[in-house]
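Lab notebook, bench 4. The sequencing result for the construct came back, and we need a structural model before the next group meeting so we can plan mutations. Quick request posted to the team channel:

Model the 3D structure of this chain.
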Amino acid sequence: MRINISQDILARALRVVNRAISSHTTSSILSGIKLTATSKGLTLTSSQPSMILEYEVPIQQDKLDIQQTGSSVVPAKHFTEIIRALPADNISLQLNEQHVMEITTEQAVYRICGMVPDEFPAVPVNRYTSLFRISCLSLQQAIRQIAFAASTAEHASVLAGVLFEISHDSLTLRATDGVRYASTTVEWNRIQSNQSGDYPPIIIAAKQLLEVAKLLGDKQNELEVGVSSNQAKFSTEHWMMHCTFLRGHFPSVTVPPAFKSSITLHTSQLQQAVERAILLSGDSHVIHMQTSGHRMKLSAQAHGIGDVSEYIDIHDCEGDDALIALNGKYLHELIRSIGSDMLSIQLSGTRSPVVIKPYDRSPLVYLLTPIRTRDTTDLS
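Done. Here's the predicted structure in token form:
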């Protein structure tokens, strides 16, 4: 393999594929990046056991010139650090028969030992039977509003994933860790499908979806989503991510159909008040939320440290006054992700999940399981 490539183009590609390099891997081949030079361009590939990420650099005048095709796996950390440190100029990459990669600039020559690419995980050749197109910003927002509610516990199985419920023209995302639950629906367009009936639901690891959201950046165009029997792919003009499904039964969650109390508040006002209450909520993060007419009281107490009570105005209210205890940290994450100036909170007692959703008729819905404390138990 022998190529000439612009430093900025290669550095940009490395920033992308490094997202699939695990710092905990014990496999030397998985700690590397596969470089493949063909007559069409240069492909960089990185891999984890359940994810493969590719970045394609097409042949461009003065940016990429393929003089000899070939492939090798280079150590990601050292190769990336070298390329990042080089000046913004053309770089020559040349691979010898012993898989030593020579990196040459006008002033310097670096040599790093590569690995034979035969043991590197192969890119899936699955035929993606269903293809969809969706706005990058729509999918990015949906992932950020939903994925945080998935479990981060080790061995959490399907609870560490996001459920995709697919139809021809929409995608519903759901996530839960058993305490909180998030759901939303976005529109997308079907490109092709061999599916005659309903699409089976699929589960994708939340961590992988958050990487998709980060890679999308502020793109204004669309991306393609492909679905096969055991994998999904997300692809844009330059990069493609293949994700293996999580296996298992995703729990069924029902949104309470009725409520005893409903209040509407300014999102920023509630978010700031919750942030302050958390400061004195201790390790348990418990805060009490009490409504009385058009006023809400947020209170918290850290044993041996102190306590706080803060009042905020309720924009609109319906039903009975209420008192409930919640995990303030989880509540803050929900509010921060809601993406609306106003939000609605619906309560059905001290044992039923609290329903939190935007006031603008968005399909986004959050549930948060209350915490039983001495004060709230007396009311049950």
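The first helix runs from residue 7 to 17.
Will bring this to the meeting.
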